[in-house]
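Journal club prep, shared notes

We agreed each person brings one worked example of a sequence with its structure written out as tokens. Mine is Response regulator. I'm keeping it raw so we can talk through how to read the token line rather than staring at a rendered picture. Sequence first:
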Amino acid sequence: MLRVIIADDHPIVRIGQRVVIEANGRCKVVGEADGPDALLRLLSTTPCDVLVTDFAMPGGQQADGYGLLSLLARQYPDLPVILVTMFANVATLRASLAHGARAIVAKSASARELPQAINAVIGGQTFASECLRVQLVEAGTGDQSQLPQLSGKEREVVRMLASGLTVSQIAARVNRSISTISKQKSTAMQRLCISTDVDLFAYARNCGMVP
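Then the structure, token by token:
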């Protein structure tokens, strides 16, 4: 019986994950956590074979997102970590794998794909949601480990956008045309395989560009 710990700050999500994980009779959820602090306490006392965790669980002393993944990789290097997130894009996939996750599952597809992800990581493989695999094909790369590379100017535009400035305000601040800033924003989103401002702001936050 595979022992699984799940972490998500929404109780209804944890209930659904428990049902899905235990449905085949091969896995048992041995603990639940509602944030990074509770998760680290749980891991220190409860042995498990797989960790299924949300990406964004703000609050508490410990960081969520990539900071939490890095900490887990250092403290529990042999524990397969499956990331379940609403921020399912290629940029998050690449960065999450680089920070130690073994699988990334879109929340919209977790009921169908979570058991597949567990089977994959237990077998020593990585796993990505189908929607992410499609994005990788569209981006013209199968390399999931390489972090997306932004130019210095693109990174600065993304940081200022995520800080709340508009394209016009950024253009005035850095003494460039609005069309230049718009193009840099567009190019950055294409490089990151991100299609919405919400995902762009989430990426900036999770990468530490903004508090």
